[in-house]
Amino acid sequence: MSKPILQVIVASVRPTRIGGAVADWFIPIAESHGGFAVDRVDLREIALPLIDEPHHPMKQMYEHEHTKRWSATITRGDAYVFVTPEYDFSPPASLLNAIQCLAKEWMYKPLGLVSYGGVSAGLRSASTLRIIATANSMMPLPGGVSIPFAGKLVDAENAHFTPGEVQDKAATSLLGELVRWERAMRVLRS
Ligand SMILES: Cc1cc2nc3c(=O)[nH]c(=O)nc-3n(C[C@H](O)[C@H](O)[C@H](O)COP(=O)(O)O)c2cc1C
Question: Is the pTM of this model over 0.85?
Fold first, then answer.
């Protein structure tokens, strides 16, 4: 049987973001963990406009090609990890919009959170995302990876991110939980 697909979704779309580097740290850990086939899904590349469909996403009556493509992408995922910053104590608008453009595509799948920020480690963003995830019948896992002062852990080009042992261990633990929840939730999706 082929491995379930874990989509690692890079939430920040800023030109000088560190989010890409955070995802590129997490992805090799996920790949060597071995429980999933891992896909990098970059919201900057996806470049969704602000929600512009006339119908509620639960109806899946999408009129625009960008929404149909986004729907097909997220449908492929069996589990998700949002790599998310915190902006104004909240998740970034790019991620909220990407979630809200769809509905059923997210349902009955587990969600891991890798959050980063200043002293807060992105935890306020992660807490809000847990509420939003449950509105879409995702299962947000209670544990996650939280990275304080993430800006100090990247190189000058914001290309390489080097956190500590605490985050490496948290990433491995999150992946183990995602495997368990994905197996359990597959029944709900069948
Ligand atoms: C619009 C904006 C709002 C921010 N608000 C917060 C915040 O509420 N809490 C926090 O810890 N950091 C905040 N920051 C700092 C970000 O955590 C930091 O800039 C981080 O690098 C952003 O992620 P990104 O570079 O991947 O976009 C904010 C940054 C921006 C650009």
Answer: yes
